[in-house]
User: Fold these one by one.
Assistant:
Number 1:
Amino acid sequence: MALKYSNKINKIRTFALSLIFIGFAIMYVGLLFKSTMWLMSIFMILGLLSVALSTVIYFWIGMLSTKTIQVVCPNCGKPTKMLGRVDACMHCNEPLTIDKDLEGKEFDERYNSKKYQK
Ligand SMILES: [Zn+2]
């Protein structure tokens, strides 16, 4: 099976991390426009917003982490955190499910939506 899914918490964390880098990159570009005050200010504000957003996302991950289910991955034997009914292992991206009905079925993130829940 092609493992195109990765663990949701890892995915969000990667996104938050890249936002920090993007934020600093934007602020760095702003420094190149030191002579144009308003242009530099715009870049600085955008950069700060990006970093602030990433902080918010990190906080959100913290909230989400309390709702995750800790399971031991049958593939690599390491403990991993699951979000929703289906998720992928944090270490090896093995698709996992906590629902016996979905066992053996093709991994589909749609199973997490309300429509598919009984
Ligand atoms: Zn694993």
Number 2:
Amino acid sequence: MLAAVAAVLGVSSSMLLERPLEQAITFAVENEFRAFEVWADHPHAHPDETPPEMRRRIRTALSPFDRISVHGPLGNASLASINPGIWRESLRQHLAATELAHDLGATVLVVHPGDLRDHRFKAEFLRLSCEALGKVVERGAELGVTIAIENCGPLHAGIDQTAADLTTIVRSLGPHGKVCLDTGHAAVNKNAAELIASLGDAIVHFHVHDNHGARDEHLPIGAGSIDFAPYVPILEHLEGMAIAEIVWEQARSTQSPETLARAAKDGWSKLLDKPR
Ligand SMILES: [Zn+2]
């Protein structure tokens, strides 16, 4: 039986971070992805490095896609930072990323909840994350951009050390509390079932990639050991995007970007056509 899936498969510009953004967009068009996620960090489209004229050009280049998302800046911009100056700057950058998303025609901005750098002050980090995200989702609501908070977990020193932590953060945002579920992060953090149980109704966006459970390998679906079956019922009703967060590296990748893209698309089709 063929599953009636509404989610649209896309690819992230971060797949080709060593190439210019324009080339990553062209690559995704040529490989017939229907959605695209723009990496709003150096060197692709950091909000501070993307002036209005460039935004117009990128938006035009993105017109072949059905749906667009943006990934917020990561480089040390933690929304949970207990360093007051860094926290303010991180918030400024995320608000700027929300505006960038709007300018590029994106409907979703993916953000990380922030880093936990000292477990003794976890409550404070959590409070700061909720406070910053509250301001970001407010700006998003004004601009028509949904903010999707990504599960990072211990793997990425995330403030969401557990699914319960992420639930606390997401629910603190009321109706604006939405989630980007990263299948690779959930596998390494070993909390996929808990995340689905407590936040399944809040998932609006997916990062779909595979690994073998020990580290973030960013492989195409099917190239690792993740059981994607629990995600299928959510994908069936998700009127959003599933972004293949596969990574190609000039110096390390043994396969061409085209081969990787094909594997990601094949893995996606197999997952959804599987009789259940
Ligand atoms: Zn991700």
